[in-house]
Protein 1
Amino acid sequence: EAGVAQSPRYKIIEKRQSVAFWCNPISGHATLYWYQQILGQGPKLLIQFQNNGVVDDSQLPKDRFSAERLKGVDSTLKIQPAKLEDSAVYLCASSLAADRGGTGELFFGEGSRLTVL
Amino acid sequence: AQSVTQLGSHVSVSEGALVLLRCNYSSSVPPYLFWYVQYPNQGLQLLLKYTSAATLVKGINGFEAEFKKSETSFHLTKPSAHMSDAAEYFCAVSDRRAGNMLTFGGGTRLMVKP
């Protein structure tokens, strides 16, 4: 079974530039998450999708971050304009929906490491 | 709101010694609890999970954790550390009222000395 795919693995940009990250979840997983992991910290949820609808985006800095999940499969996370403090690893994860027996186990991709100079 | 506290951001043990990583949680409903491991430049991998069945949960690589409701704890243990166990470990709690959203602790970096 293929895992969660993310790209690019690494990205270096200058502040005020834009960047986009892509995620392809495990087939059949209705729930998709984007987490931000700053060096030395635990992952922080940015946004959670159920199919193509947003369940929780309360911690997403909406003035610069946006995310979409067209057709309820792939997802993109965009940052525009980037700030120095956005340097982090952006982790995508997917899981079975709770109403399909999901118990909260998340399956993570390898992450996209962003460096903002 | 749920929260997770991991005591000790760094833990160092000798190879062959007991590993104990501490996790305490706060939840207003019976929780699901998880331990994930992260190796350098990789994503998070599930070690084990508690979903209201047996309170002693066994995971991969010889790790286990015990759910203690009275202490709101879910500490991770391994009887004998191996060099390959060196990694970052994250405890997490799932909010079943919010679509199983996971809240993570700050992580504990385990170092294993030869």
Protein 2
Amino acid sequence: QVQLQESGPGLVKPSQTLSLTCTVSGGSISSGSYYWSWIRQPAGKGLEWIGRIYTSGSTNYNPSLKSRVTISVDTSKNQFSLKLSSVTAADTAVYYCARVLLPWYFDYWGQGTLVTVSS
Amino acid sequence: QSALTQPRSVSGSPGQSVTISCTGTSSDVGGYNYVSWYQQHPGKAPKLMIYDVSKRPSGVPDRFSGSKSGNTASLTISGLQAEDEADYYCCSYAGSYTFGVFGGGTKLTVL
């Protein structure tokens, strides 16, 4: 059973960079034809796809966030990571990592981690 | 404003059926048979309930079914149970630029 767990600071100051890591257990991040994705959800609001990465390093990003997002993968640690630069209060949300079953289904999710942007 | 339009809330009594709609455009819902539905209980991560418009992952009860007509997808839950009370989100592939879009979510209340 694949499990995902997000980790990282819960508080980030405005204009700084938000950094989160997702650790995958129960299987190799490199096995199978899967992408790995980040999705966020502001309190009381809907889901927003941020981006995804294949274990080759190939990435795709939400056009609305593309200029600020970087997703990377470390297969040796079975982890993938998110960096979101120049954050504002609008980036405050629960951030989820998820496995992407091609072409576009999120079949395993982490529990989510709340990131608050505040000084 | 979400890319896909869902009703904000629906309700039904135990044993009844409810249908949640998800309206997009020919660039997403109407253009691809890659619609999925997610169930989210408060404080929990979303759970995949339907994919490829109408397929159920292993373990999802057959009370949950999906369909699509034109630019509108639908999720139908029959034989409503108390544990079905949750938020439901639709999601569609939208091509190799936008990739994927979610609906704004629908809160299902079991009366």
Protein 3
Amino acid sequence: AQSVTQLDSHVSVSEGTPVLLRCNYSSSYSPSLFWYVQHPNKGLQLLLKYTSAATLVKGINGFEAEFKKSETSFHLTKPSAHMSDAAEYFCVVSGRRDYKLSFGAGTTVTVRA
Amino acid sequence: GAVVSQHPSWVICKSGTSVKIECRSLDFQATTMFWYRQFPKQSLMLMATSNEGSKATYEQGVEKDKFLINHASLTLSTLTVTSAHPEDSSFYICSASGGNGINEQFFGPGTRLTVL
């Protein structure tokens, strides 16, 4: 079985400052990991994914995440937050056989002007 | 590519009626579709997995007779909420996978169901 834990339920940053969203995973095998973003009353948009290739993964809108097996982490970062980054972010791990996704509880990001 | 649509985007119905939600993969064949439920300010909870042409597999605690899922073609899955009650009010999101060995799901925009 696999699971993810998002360590922060809410992150508040000022526009133009870095964003860090923390995620730890648990998996009995080499996992596939994803970060999704959800704006209010909208579906989910894939930001980036890790599937056992490069450990530093670059995604859309300037986001990137680093897979650290020794720390079982997959933290999401962005060097400079924009107002449009205000949303809910989900860290997700996938099962290898049935492709079921296990979602973290989510992190709400607010961006202050 | 990999676009998934849902219809309707929102629906309001009276208690006791049934509501059907459609999920379509517009530009690929979806061998597997997933249905999720999301309560306000909460994460997504997987309700069921459906494979084209076979019965859906429901997660523990999800009533299969209440949430009827049909995956009759490679581009369409439907979720019918039968005899809806106010506690069924939620945001329902579907996703689709092409089943080509890539474990990525493509999500629809969601359907907001409100039962009065």
